[in-house]
Design a protein that fits this description.
Keywords: Heme, Iron, Metal-binding, Monooxygenase, Oxidoreductase, Signal. The chain is of the alpha+beta class. The protein contains 18 helices and ten strands. It starts with a helix and ends in a 6-residue tail after the last strand.
């Protein structure tokens, strides 16, 4: 009996050392660590549990100097909220976190999931499709989709609070399809509904797998039935994506046009099809990047617009400042926005940036450490993982004593921004892997908000907003708005 007890003690000590290998310059460990499982129990139990853990991680990390250790079993994660260390980590590590492997059957080696040399090559080849001049060429399409949205919102005027995200998600998907892929989907709402519904189901299944330790086993995952559902949804989404490629191929053949020059004026689909013809991108590469761009664009943009309307509806003085600027720039007419208008709408842009700062959709930047990385006080080694908490960077004390206050004016002059403020504003990512579509997102959001606020006044109650996180941070309640027609609204 004594021998069994002694064996168990030795085994426990061995496993404990295996779980937390003491390395040089290790950061302090997040509270609540348990031998063998580490902090795994803190991320299991649903979105609200995960949200609570992310909040606690950020607070404790700030108290302990900006870097702490978080363990999922034996796997060490460096949790970082120090801006300088965050920038070092992001620029030194281009490989995505292991969690993104779950999305590989769906997104393959698209920009979200790929790393290293594959990401570098794809990013370099795709950059021209998101150039400023290309995005400005989409303004008519941005305006058309925004007008369609405003007309659809007429059904909600003077009625009960409603979920505006449902309208915004449709508009975002139509916009990305119409612009980046050159596909007219105004009369194809059925396609949008099918794609959004399938993506939401896929994200739900993958989130459940992430939060349930038992589903990490391939055998249990298959026996649970989730693997079959996931495979069916992925196949369906791929069929929809391939249909976009085929439609564009047919259009190009019918026009007898073949654009060969890799100029900065090409849309994404044109660029990808040309690269396919040059045997740089395969058919599979094209589909993967299409799925990636659609998923990244419509979900993040839709929730960001939702937060913007919630803020404006709860802060009438800011809403009126934006509305006044819109009237001053565009006048009493109902004309479309042009590039000069976008440049003049400085307060509107400042408001959007402040929304993105305080209500970031992506909770964290995740990296796989593949080589030794020296932070200010600690060292990350190959095999470690890195988690940069965006919310804490965006609310860093460098923003000033009013860091928690929603104040668009801070964006109107460099003097009010933190020095090297790109390290303190991580909504579009940080370091070399920043969002490729940030200009596209800003211009489309600005256009949509201008069209909405020219016709409607928005009301909401931000105090009731309750958020949770999985892959994105989104509301579970308090996110409904009401709209009324503005006096002297343009039509």
């Amino acid at each position: 009996m004594l021998g069994i007890v002694l064996f168990l003690i030795i085994l426990f000590v061995f496993l404990w050392k295996l779980t937390v290998e003491v390395k040089e310059n290790s950061p302090p460990t997040f509270s609540g660590w348990i031998p063998i499982i580490g902090h795994l129990y803190k991320i299991i139990g649903g979105r609200e549990r995960l949200s609570r853990t992310l909040f606690d991680l950020g607070e404790e990390c700030e108290r302990k100097g900006g870097v702490i250790g978080f363990y999922v079993g034996a796997q060490r994660h460096f949790v970082i909220v120090d801006p300088e260390d965050a920038l070092t980590a992001a620029n030194s590590s281009l490989s995505k976190h292991a969690i993104f492997k779950q999305a590989e059957p769906w997104l393959g080696n698209g920009l979200i999931t790929s790393g290293g040399s594959t990401w570098k090559m794809h990013r370099k080849l795709m950059n021209p499709a998101f150039h400023l001049n290309v995005v400005l060429g989409y303004l008519d399409l941005f305006n058309n989709q925004a007008r369609s949205l405003v007309e659809n919102l007429e059904d909600e005027v003077d009625k009960e609070p409603f979920n505006v995200f449902q309208y915004l998600s449709q508009t975002s998907l139509k916009t990305i399809c119409s612009t980046a892929f050159g596909i007219n989907v105004d009369q194809d709402s059925e396609f949008c509904n099918k794609y959004i519904h399938a993506c939401e189901k896929l994200i739900g299944i993958q989130t459940r797998k992430f939060q349930n330790i038992w589903l990490q086993s391939d055998l249990i995952y298959r026996l649970s039935g989730f693997k079959k559902k996931e495979d069916e949804l992925i196949k369906y989404v791929h069929q929809l994506s391939n249909s976009i490629v085929q439609r564009k191929r047919m259009e190009r053949k019918e026009r007898h046009k073949e654009v060969k020059s890799a100029t900065k004026m090409q849309s994404l689909i044109d660029l990808l099809l040309n690269l396919s013809g040059d045997q740089v991108f395969s058919q599979e590469d094209i589909r993967e990047e299409i799925d990636t761009v659609i998923v990244a664009a419509f979900d993040t943009t839709s929730w960001s617009l939702t937060y913007a309307l919630l803020v404006l509806g709860s802060m009438p003085e800011i809403q009126e400042k934006v509305a006044k600027e819109i009237e001053e720039v565009l006048g009493p007419t109902d004309r479309n926005l042009d590039k000069d208008d976008l440049q003049k709408l400085v307060y509107t842009e400042a408001m959007i940036k402040e929304v993105l700062r305080l209500y970031n959709v992506l909770p964290a930047v995740l990296r796989d450490i593949t080589e030794k990385v020296q932070l200010k006080n600690y060292t990350m080694y190959p095999g470690d993982q890195c988690m940069i908490l965006i919310n804490n960077l965006n609310r860093h004390k460098a923003w000033g004593l009013d860091v928690e206050q929603f104040r668009p004016e801070r964006w109107l002059g460099e003097a009010e921004l933190p020095e090297h403020h790109s390290a303190y504003f991580a909504t579009f990512g940080i370091g070399r892997r920043f969002c490729i579509g940030r200009i596209f997102a800003m211009y489309s959001m600005k256009t949509i908000l201008v069209h909405i606020l020219r016709r409607y006044s928005v009301k909401s109650d931000l105090a009731k907003l309750r958020l949770t996180s999985d892959y994105v941070t989104k509301p579970v309640s308090g996110h409904f708005i009401t709209i009324t027609r503005r006096i002297n609204a343009v039509n």
